Amino acid sequence: MRLTFLGTGTSFGVPVPGCDCAVCTSDNPRNWRTRHGLLLEDEGRRLLVDTPPELRLQLLAAKVDHLDGVFITHAHADHVHGIDDLRAFTTREGYRLPVYVAAEYEEELRTRFAYFWGPDARTTPGSSVPGLDLVTFEDRDRVEAAGFDLETVAFPHGWFRSYGFRVGDLAVIVDAKEVPDSAVPLLQGVPVLVINALWYGNPHPTHFNVEEALEAARRLEAGTTYLTHLTHRVDHADLESRLPAGVKPAWDGLTIEI
Ligand SMILES: [Zn+2]
Ligand SMILES: [Zn+2]
Ligand SMILES: [Zn+2]
Hints:
With 258 residues, the protein is an alpha/beta fold.
């Protein structure tokens, strides 16, 4: 299985428009972080995780020419507002793409994207909308998505919940503030962990900071750990030099074999 980090930035992205901080004005391309997206590939099958606002640019950068499924972690704008870009595949190839989302977000997504998921959705002949089929799941479900056997987990995220999963030797936790005790056995000892972290210090109400992400990784006895959903308050090189052995900052375009 191959994992590609399509986007590793927090909801604002990095650089932040109008910001002149050292990270936003850095020459290091690894400080350029688009909003959260992952790509899982195995034997020609491709599963996309989240559809952020920069999705089109991410798909071009990763040379993705086909998708077999999409997993949505939750309905926040930075994770879904690029969903229309999926039209490129479904229109050209003429197929319906399954989009896996927690049942609690179905109504919200059908309302927000009513032009293709609402009761009155229709297309003017000659124009196109994304051909997407919503498939819902629950916390601690098994989801067969694009041939990947995912076990889903809901993570507290302020007033909301964000859904991650374990698939084989990989666990994905994004936009989490906590790992529920009941999820620990599923995630314990996972060889590769992707986990969200904003910055050092100053605890945030809905996201792990770096210290909290490291503590969660230790508690799960995770193997190689990649921090993602990073803000402009962390410089890639500085973060890389400060992290303990086995923990690395992810960056847009990073690909790993699992
Ligand atoms: Zn987010
Ligand atoms: Zn900045
Ligand atoms: Zn969120």
